Amino acid sequence: MGQVVPRLYEQVIRDHFQTRRQMLFLSGPRQVGKTTLARAALAERGAGAYLSWDDVSDRRVMLAGTEAIAERVGLDQLREQKPLLVLDELRKHAGWKDLLKGLFDSRGDELDVLVTGSARLDVFRTGGDSLVGRYLSYRVHPLSVGELARPWVGLTRPPVALDSEDLEALERFSGFPEPYLLRDERFHRQWRRLRSQQLLREDLRDLTRIHEVSLVETLVELLRHRAGQLTTAASLARDLRVSQDTVRRWLDALSGLYVAFRIRPWSRNVRRALKKEPKVFLWDWSLVEDPGARWENLVACHLLKAVHLWSDHGLGDFGLHFVRDKQQREVDFLVSRDGEPWVLVEVKRSDTRLAPSLRYFQEETGAPIAVQCVRGLGFVGRDGLVAGPPMVVSGLTVLGGVV
After folding, report:
1. Which residues make Cβ contacts (< 8 Å) with residue 283, sequence separation at least 6?
2. Domain edge (last residue) among 83, 105, 139
3. Same-domain status, 48 and 123
4. Which of 43, 51, 141, 187 could form a disulfide with 58 if both were Cys (CB 3.0 to 4.6 A apart)?
């Protein structure tokens, strides 16, 4: 397999600057490929500049302000193409919102702006100078079955087959491009260790006020063994010997750094539904050792990628939940669309017996689509996400039909 794989976000970037005037924000986990995407967009454009906050000389330019940036981009030169300015890891600059506002308001008609970051770029929604109306944002996710089979930006489609070897590599080495493409166990262990150090000993320190790094590392280790389980702040606080508020603050930080994500239970129109306790999953599913839990975490990441892309692309308001009642009946995932239940997904590694809870919760919620996503079944080239009674469907078919 070659060392370059097409990303669906290439088309996202292209379409955005052809049809929109706003700045484009790309956020996502460390080493998910944001810088590669940004540099490729700049190379395709053939005019502009790349500035990284992590580079000292580039940092000086950004600190000097709008006119210094305009000079670096070359706005005083007549060009056939509008230049593209890429600002990488700008979130680390304390005055980044003011800088972007000034740049967009004064020179926004003369250049396109692409901002990337490995921490969430949504903090501008609160506080003083708002950037609302000056940006559109996309969240970049690791590689997925659908993206590897054929990059796609729309809603569900007829599934495209992915080789079983590629699915095994995706499950084993994660969807982060470098370890997935290299497929070397020794490198993967080295890559994982270095990435963890960068996230928890650099990003956590630089972007939050959290100093108990060793305890946060322990929290990640606990989550690794509890992926997909109901997880309460109280139980984690007891294990870590800290307060529940501290645990919640740390979980928020891990979410902001794209290390972990929580999904909440769906309770509307469900009798005696669970309403509070979330499930926690990891963005890097290769950290999860148990095969069944790892497969469920992989499916969770695929569904989260779909709801993020569909929402970011303006196709609707999508959400990811699970559903469980006090009789302990449960379906692993519920995808909502514009506030209504849309798709129920039960995840199994090999069990092809239809789970009774799938039919029960389809009747309770009214979700038109209900599937049991089974890892061990072979690919079927028919749409597995169609309205109707619950159906047992190959995991490759389900995941190959979304992004």
Report:
1. 29, 142, 258, 259, 260, 261, 301
2. 139
3. yes
4. 51
Query: Does one domain contain both 79 and 116?
Result: yes
pTM above 0.70, yes or no: yes
Domain total of the chain: 2
Alpha-carbon gap, residue 270 to 4, rounded angstroms: 46
**Domain stop point among 115, 139, 163:** 139
Give one word for 46, left, alpha or beta, with left for phi > 0 and alpha for psi -120 to 50: left
Q: Is 320 domain-assigned? A: yes
Q: Is 296 part of a structural domain of the chain?
A: yes
Give the structural domain span for 315.
145-400
Here the tokens at position 105 are 């308001």
Has residue 394 been placed in a domain?
A: yes
Task: Return the CA Rg of the chain.
Answer: 22
